[in-house]
């Protein structure tokens, strides 16, 4: 059992507090690997993107990829972290079939990025909710290992080295999170920032972002307990589920008189459980030492200035601007800035509408109409059948009275199906709204004649019938009458 306000696990001996830290591995956006020119494209045939450096052929020397370093520095700047002008690569020694060199080039003692922070909302559905700052200990750059494939042969395992040497940023948090919800909010916020910066695509399902989840439990106020590390969790939902299970498991072990073993575990998403993988190694087990093939990284001020100048407006700043300058509600601003692609689409829409459509109207349409349609047809905003420019044309036709809101929804559906522009659809199908008072008055007269009893009721004080007359008139006009003109004329006719 848990308490939603202050997350606790209620055990037989009392309440337990969960302590969570995350090590997020984010693949750096770069066309080439960290120390070679081999491609990093996703989905290639096994072992088709492997250079001699990646395969650890004798005499091959690594050469750092400047773009990978630049992207890691920009990421550090986006989380207000200290950038270390001097950093160094180390060798982390271990032996596994998917690691051709017998060591991984990483950074332990002198990382590229030092301490930073990330602010999360404690209730992501409420933009005005309290926030919490999660400390970030470091970001270091390292190369990925290859991949073992166990399902290609009944008795053998195959090795795919396409990922060998791919650049990763390992973003290490402080153990500041106290619930699965906080950990989920942290991963989502971090992924949003990475996507805004463009340093990682954040596609967890493709393995370009994954988390090692460190969990321990303690009685509130006690020292930190022994932690376990659950490796390579590849979705926000699974991160939260792994924490739930692992914390509960640890409480059960401790309450039965057992001890938590410091170990590495794996999460089984099908069963929702963690299981032991191996005992947890300490730094000395890897025999770290400075990589003799690589000089230390030394960053100059010009490089750092260029990195800082290249940063986009980040989500928190953008959200505040949408509220203060565009007049959007905090909720709408939060929705529109939650993903970089959504914010870009919205801003392209605003640019295309100019002063014809208010930002509020554009935001409401995007969040309700466009999001609803995309959800229905199973597409994301990047693959929307309707472009920002087409949407701007539609909204402008509604704003200037050419078509009504109701007709606008019909035109939008046709746009989704055909890809045609709004103006062309309105012209071809004769959907222009009419403000011809003579034609509207004639239809009002017919409606009133056909419903003399309701006219009498309305005039007798049943004001709610006004909506009935509006609906009947609009129906008679095929939905093409200007609603404002209909309302005005009806009020006069009904007295």
TrEMBL record:
<comment type="subunit">
    <text>Heterotrimer of A, B and C subunits.</text>
</comment>
<feature type="domain" description="Asn/Gln amidotransferase">
    <location>
        <begin position="344"/>
        <end position="494"/>
    </location>
</feature>
<keyword id="KW-0547">Nucleotide-binding</keyword>
<dbReference type="InterPro" id="IPR017959">
    <property type="entry name" value="Asn/Gln-tRNA_amidoTrfase_suB/E"/>
</dbReference>
<dbReference type="GO" id="GO:0005524">
    <property type="term" value="F:ATP binding"/>
</dbReference>
<keyword id="KW-0436">Ligase</keyword>
<dbReference type="InterPro" id="IPR018027">
    <property type="entry name" value="Asn/Gln_amidotransferase"/>
</dbReference>
<protein>
    <recommendedName>
        <fullName>Aspartyl/glutamyl-tRNA(Asn/Gln) amidotransferase subunit B</fullName>
        <ecNumber>6.3.5.-</ecNumber>
    </recommendedName>
</protein>
<keyword id="KW-0808">Transferase</keyword>
<dbReference type="GO" id="GO:0050567">
    <property type="term" value="F:glutaminyl-tRNA synthase (glutamine-hydrolyzing) activity"/>
</dbReference>
<dbReference type="InterPro" id="IPR017958">
    <property type="entry name" value="Gln-tRNA_amidoTrfase_suB_CS"/>
</dbReference>
<dbReference type="InterPro" id="IPR006075">
    <property type="entry name" value="Asn/Gln-tRNA_Trfase_suB/E_cat"/>
</dbReference>
<dbReference type="GO" id="GO:0006412">
    <property type="term" value="P:translation"/>
</dbReference>
<dbReference type="InterPro" id="IPR003789">
    <property type="entry name" value="Asn/Gln_tRNA_amidoTrase-B-like"/>
</dbReference>
<keyword id="KW-0648">Protein biosynthesis</keyword>
<dbReference type="GO" id="GO:0070681">
    <property type="term" value="P:glutaminyl-tRNAGln biosynthesis via transamidation"/>
</dbReference>
<dbReference type="Pfam" id="PF02637">
    <property type="entry name" value="GatB_Yqey"/>
</dbReference>
<dbReference type="InterPro" id="IPR042114">
    <property type="entry name" value="GatB_C_1"/>
</dbReference>
<keyword id="KW-0067">ATP-binding</keyword>
<dbReference type="InterPro" id="IPR023168">
    <property type="entry name" value="GatB_Yqey_C_2"/>
</dbReference>
<comment type="similarity">
    <text>Belongs to the GatB/GatE family. GatB subfamily.</text>
</comment>
<dbReference type="InterPro" id="IPR014746">
    <property type="entry name" value="Gln_synth/guanido_kin_cat_dom"/>
</dbReference>
<comment type="function">
    <text>Allows the formation of correctly charged Asn-tRNA(Asn) or Gln-tRNA(Gln) through the transamidation of misacylated Asp-tRNA(Asn) or Glu-tRNA(Gln) in organisms which lack either or both of asparaginyl-tRNA or glutaminyl-tRNA synthetases. The reaction takes place in the presence of glutamine and ATP through an activated phospho-Asp-tRNA(Asn) or phospho-Glu-tRNA(Gln).</text>
</comment>
<dbReference type="InterPro" id="IPR004413">
    <property type="entry name" value="GatB"/>
</dbReference>
<dbReference type="GO" id="GO:0016740">
    <property type="term" value="F:transferase activity"/>
</dbReference>
<dbReference type="Pfam" id="PF02934">
    <property type="entry name" value="GatB_N"/>
</dbReference>
<dbReference type="GO" id="GO:0050566">
    <property type="term" value="F:asparaginyl-tRNA synthase (glutamine-hydrolyzing) activity"/>
</dbReference>
């Amino acid at each position: 059992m848990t308490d939603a306000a202050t997350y606790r696990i209620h055990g037989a001996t009392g309440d337990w507090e969960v302590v969570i830290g995350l090590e997020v591995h984010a693949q750096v956006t770069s066309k080439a690997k960290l120390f070679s020119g081999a491609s990093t494209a996703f989905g290639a045939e096994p072992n088709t993107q492997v250079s001699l450096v990646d395969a650890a052929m004798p005499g091959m020397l690594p050469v750092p990829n400047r773009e990978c370093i630049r992207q890691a520095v920009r990421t550090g700047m986006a989380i207000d972290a200290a950038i270390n002008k001097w950093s160094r690569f180390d060798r982390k020694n271990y032996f596994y079939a998917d690691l051709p060199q017998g060591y991984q080039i990483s950074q332990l003692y002198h990382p590229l990025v030092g301490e930073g922070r990330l602010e999360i909302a404690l209730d992501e559905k409420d933009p005005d909710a309290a926030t919490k700052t999660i400390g970030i200990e470091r970001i270091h750059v390292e190369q990925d290992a290859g991949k073992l494939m166990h399902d290609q042969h009944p008795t053998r395992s195959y090795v795919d080295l396409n990922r060998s040497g791919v650049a990763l940023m390992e973003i290490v948090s402080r153990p500041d999170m106290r619930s699965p919800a906080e950990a989920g909010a942290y991963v989502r916020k971090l992924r949003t920032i990475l996507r805004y910066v463009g340093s990682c695509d954040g596609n967890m399902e493709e393995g370009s972002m994954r988390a090692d989840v460190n969990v321990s439990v303690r009685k509130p106020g006690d020292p930190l307990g022994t932690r376990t590390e659950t490796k390579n969790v590849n979705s926000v939902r699974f991160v939260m589920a792994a924490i739930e299970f692992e914390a509960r498991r640890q409480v059960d072990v401790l309450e039965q008189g057992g001890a938590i073993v410091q170990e590495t575990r794996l999460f089984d998403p099908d069963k929702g459980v963690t299981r032991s993988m191996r005992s947890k190694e300490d730094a000395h087990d890897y025999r770290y030492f400075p990589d003799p093939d690589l000089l230390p990284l030394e960053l100059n001020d010009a490089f750092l200035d260029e990195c800082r100048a290249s940063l986009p407006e980040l989500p928190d700043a953008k959200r505040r601007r949408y509220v203060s300058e565009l007049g959007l509600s905090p909720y709408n601003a939060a929705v529109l800035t939650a993903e970089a692609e959504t914010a870009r689409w919205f801003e392209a829409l605003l640019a295309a509408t100019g002063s014809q459509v208010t930002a509020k109207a554009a935001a409401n349409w995007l969040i309700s109409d466009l999001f609803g349609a995309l959800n229905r047809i199973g597409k994301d905003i990047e693959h929307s059948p309707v472009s920002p420019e087409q949407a701007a044309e539609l909204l402008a036709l509604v704003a200037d009275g050419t078509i009504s809101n109701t007709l606008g929804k019909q035109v939008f559906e046709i746009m989704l199906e055909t890809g045609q522009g709004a103006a062309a659809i309105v012209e071809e199908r004769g959907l222009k709204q009419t403000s011809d008072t003579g034609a509207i008055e004639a239809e009002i007269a017919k409606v009133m004649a056909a419903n003399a009893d309701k006219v009498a009721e309305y005039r007798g004080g049943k004001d709610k019938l006004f909506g009935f007359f509006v609906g009947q008139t609009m129906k008679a006009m095929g939905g093409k009458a200007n609603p404002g003109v209909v309302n005005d004329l009806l009020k006069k006719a009904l007295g």
